[in-house]
Amino acid sequence: MKLSADTRIHDLLATHPFLERFLAELHPKFELLRSRMARATVGRVATVRAAAEIAGLDTEELVGSLAAEIERRTGARPELEDGTRADLAAGGRAESSTLTSSGSNAGTTPAARSRDERLGILREIISDVHAGGDLERAQKRFAEAVADVEASEIAAMEEDLIRSGLPVSEVQRLCDVHVGAFRPALDAHAEVSALPGHPIHTYQADNREITRLADALGRLARRARSASDLTPLRAQIEALLDELAGIENHYQRKENQLFPLLERHDVSGPTKVMWGVHDEIRGQLKQVRAALKADDADEFAQQAVRLGRALVEMVYKEEKILLPLALETLSPEEWSEVRSGEDQLGYVLADPGDEWPQTARPSTSDVRSSSSAACSSSSADRSSSSAPRSSATTARKGDPVSDDRLELATGSLSPDQMRLLFTHLPVDVTFVDETDTVRFYSEGPDRVFPRTPAVIGRKVQNCHPPKSVDVVERIVTAFREGRRDTAEFWIEMKGRFIHIRYFALRDDAGAYRGVIEVTQDVTEIRALEGQRRLLDWNV
Q1: pTM above 0.70?
Q2: How do residues 411-425 score in pLDDT, each as one tens digit?
Q3: Buried b vs exposed e over 194-228: b needs ≥16 C-beta within 10 Å?
């Protein structure tokens, strides 16, 4: 390829990948090129000239340094476009020091700070706010110290705070504070984008719907304040709340598909914090419904405004932190896995498009065969959700009966027979092994809690919202130590009565081998009376 000031950075790095490190070492501003997200967005449109302007470098000298490095690494001098000073191509790396020094105080400016230095400053700022420091002072200090924070740095800061011992609930409480401190920098970032059909595009389409619904809720709240009762507004409010129930599908897709894949890359702090906020919003939606049921106009207005604000803030955190972080972290193959699992969960707020390459997506069975666990979404008391408009078929086609039968103490089963058995059990079964890794879930047609293949291999602690993790730890610890063998819960959810039981699994020697969770909708069973001793079919 010919090299000039108008050569795109994306094309340059695609042809000569070694230039990524060269540029990062040349000037701190170019560190962002190590980010997959930056290369996929800004890098696709930015030219060498634009990059030089960003770093405060001389364009022709930057072209010369790039040409010299290409020649040094490949042994062939790149062809320069007409008008480019060819003599600069012989300068070699000697120009690096000149270029670096041409940026104003590159060693002391915010842009020149190393990632570790920047993270250290972020932690100090948030720790100061946590201790009662002034937010305005924190924002000013942030602007002076770290002018262009990345989503990955905010995520790393949250991860560090949690690992240092700060409870997830405290980091969650600080979430609005530190996002507020970083908002000016986050606002300056380019929006992430993806083709219709890519999960990023679908999340963004969902968020536009959520924002629209939050705005409509705010308008109804204002009208409710001046009303003596909610009767004239009831039909509109109920219709709007039915639409808002679709946020459950949006949050479940994040919790069951996106979060597990981020955790594979050791990104768990931000997902735990965001899951906690999801549950707060679920609770707020319940409070709005309760105020409507009580016909309390003032309470409805107050709770509706609170919910609307929380919804919009969550959209902002997704768009500015979660989605950029996910786009930077996950590979194309992993995004295909996200899409396959989301197809099973279905879509409520917005349907996915079809421009994203379908050939890149593994089939449902491919995803299952490469996975090894699932988890329970224990926020069972969540707000009701609309039925998905579209979803992939979740039943697998029957495997051919195999001679490779598994011999059991009371018989033998082929793999296909085992699949059929678990699929048709009137209970949901989940198995977590002795390492707290979820290894299996049954896949019946009427699941109580959603599960997708993305959670296979996930630690059971990460399969629950932060408020439930302590209970999970107590159960697993008591089972592992031999102090307990069972734990039992029952809840009411969407008018149904759900029975949840946990059983410790021990081998013949008594060693702990894991836990099995059995969940069953026992609504009809609880309603039984008397006895039925004869077949009662209406044929």
Answers
A1: no
A2: 889 888 888 998 888
A3: beebbbbbbbbbbbebbbebbebbbebbebbeeee
